Amino acid sequence: MIGRAIRALGARIYTHPTVSEDGKPTGQFGRLKVALVSDYFTADCLSAECSIRILNPRNYEEVISSWKPDLLFVESVFHGLGGAWRYELAKQSRLIRLRTPRTIYKLVQFAKDQGVPTVFWNKDDGAYFEHFIDVAKAFDYVFTTDSDCLPRYRARLNPDVPVNTLSMPYQPAFHHFTGFGFTRKEGCFTGSYYRRILSERRRFLDMIFGACEDAQMHLNAYDRNHDRLSRHLEFRFPRSTHLQVHSQVPHRETGRIYKEHVMCLNVNSVTDSDTMCSRRLLEILASGGIAVTNPGRAVDRYFRDFCHVVHSREQASELFSRLRQGPSAQDCERAAAGAAYVRQFHTWEHRLQELADVVGF
Q1: Of all residues in the chain, what percent carry a pLDDT higher than 70?
Q2: 217-237: buried (b, 16+ CB within 10 Å) or exposed (e) per residue?
Q3: Which residues is 35 bridged to in the sheet?
Q4: Fewer beta carbons within 10 angstroms: which end of the chain, N or C?
């Protein structure tokens, strides 16, 4: 009851981004029909790849029965697009939720009854494995961004449920390389700052903010939570002389931000996985941005040749002092190679093909 009240209040206070469901993609999966429960970013990316319908607790029966999708795709979300699934997927404090989720299980069973394959994708493993494991048990197929979690799923799910890795992709329709045209000898960061959780992530960002002060590098932070009341509390950026916090930019415009700045900051919340990285890192590389990121196993395995991996404040300060004078030829060669690499291996088309190989659509 409290959760429902909070969702209603959020709908009145916040203006949520919307995603077009009426596009006509022309690629390999342009005729694929996907009924979707996801965040805004995944929905926006998939809308350029296939036909989608956004499900909420009120419309799912009508959409599935009349539109007849090829696939139900549900990802790990705490709120979902428009806040429609807040407190309905992830485990939450009983003080907030008061009862366990029911609607998501009804949705999955309804899709199964209609003969629609059901897929769950935990893009937030392994930090949030326990938050979503109960929901994952309801699905025909389970995918995770973290290969280290495969044994944990296989130990908790029915043995007949296939479990596979599905790494984070990006959408080249929105983020793609068009050559270099840096107009700002400054850094940028598109994302969030957390004061209570993800302490390793916070320490890296604090180190970078300090390095920007040392190097006199101005850093523009486009705050993903700028329009939320909680930006004054949990999501509040620290004060720093060379950090300027702006409101968020629409997802499809972040490529322009990456192309303008000589330094594009990334931080991966999970660093001990061979397969997990942020969507932001892929989008920076795809746009031809000069990426600066924290170390991690996936970075070392896939992306270290295409970005600056920073281990210390001194290393970051030296790098930023140089980039303030403009990128070198080697910086640009590395960025161009990164754009080509992610285009070849890490798009949504690649991930849909991986899904198709398992699910059979």
Answers
A1: 92
A2: bbbbbbbbbbebeebeeebeb
A3: 53, 72
A4: N
Could you tell me the pTM of the whole model? 0.93
**List of residues 6+ apart from 56 with CB closer than 8 A:** 80, 82, 84, 85
Cβ atoms of 289 and 271 closer than 8 Å: no
Tokens 């699934």 sit on residue: 85
Gap between the Cα atoms of 344 and 346, Å rounded:
6
Sheet holding 291-293, edge to edge: 243-247, 219-223, 184-191, 261-265, 291-293, 308-309
SS3 130: helix
pLDDT tens-digit readout, 236-257 = 999 999 999 999 999 999 999 9
Strands 118-122 and 291-293: unpaired
Residue length of the chain: 361
Fold of 2-169+347-359: Rossmann fold (3.40.50)
